[in-house]
Amino acid sequence: MQNILIVGVGGQGTILASRALAAVVLRAGFEVKVSEIHGMAQRGGSVVTQARWGERVFSPIIPPGEAGIILAFEKLEALRWLPWLRRGGQMLVSDQRIDPMPVVTGAAAYPEDAIAQMRAAGAAVTVCDGLALARQAGNAKAVNIVLLGLLSRCLEFAPAEWEAALRAVTPPRFLDVNLEAFRLGRSSTA
Fold first, then answer.
1. Lower CB density within 10 Å: C or N end of the chain?
2. Per-residue pLDDT tens digits of the chain, which is 190 residues long
3. Range of the domain at 82
4. Which of 73, 11, 71, 74 is nearest to 39 (CA)?
5. Could you give the number of structural domains in the chain?
6. DSSP string across 89-107
């Protein structure tokens, strides 16, 4: 059973990323279940997608401590979901900071050492400047696809399968940018 948690904030494209991941897994012949939690996504709140696949999948929910990979589009969200990572799991994190409302209002402080906290907890953390790579691809909103490219290096599916999945789930006007964002994420030195 493979368990991947995709976390970010509203508007970052976690849902599109999870659909692309599910398309790749289905094309490979596995059973896949995906669960989406939107929260206050339209107001910049947390968005979490849980993806599970294998020969037989009975539940889409990943228990705490069972995610093999956490794909995080924002550092604080990565830190928030760290308890779901299994021992020996991998954190793939975009080095992007999006202040949640409590930070914006001054009610809370954004942890300046989020990556260090994850590493101190024993997580294997790979950090990627997803925003810079998305801009290089032609659209700052393509961070989600850059991170999918990074994720693709950790899974057994061929790049051509990922690109076919992106073609299936991406609106045509964004396809060229998303394919470039995927390639940049896959080849990044993160």
1. N
2. 899 999 998 889 898 999 999 999 999 999 899 987 766 545 567 889 999 998 888 888 999 999 999 999 999 999 999 999 999 999 999 999 998 888 889 999 999 999 999 999 999 999 999 999 999 999 999 999 999 999 999 999 999 999 999 999 999 999 999 999 999 999 998 7
3. 2-187
4. 11
5. 1
6. EEEEEE------HHHHTTS
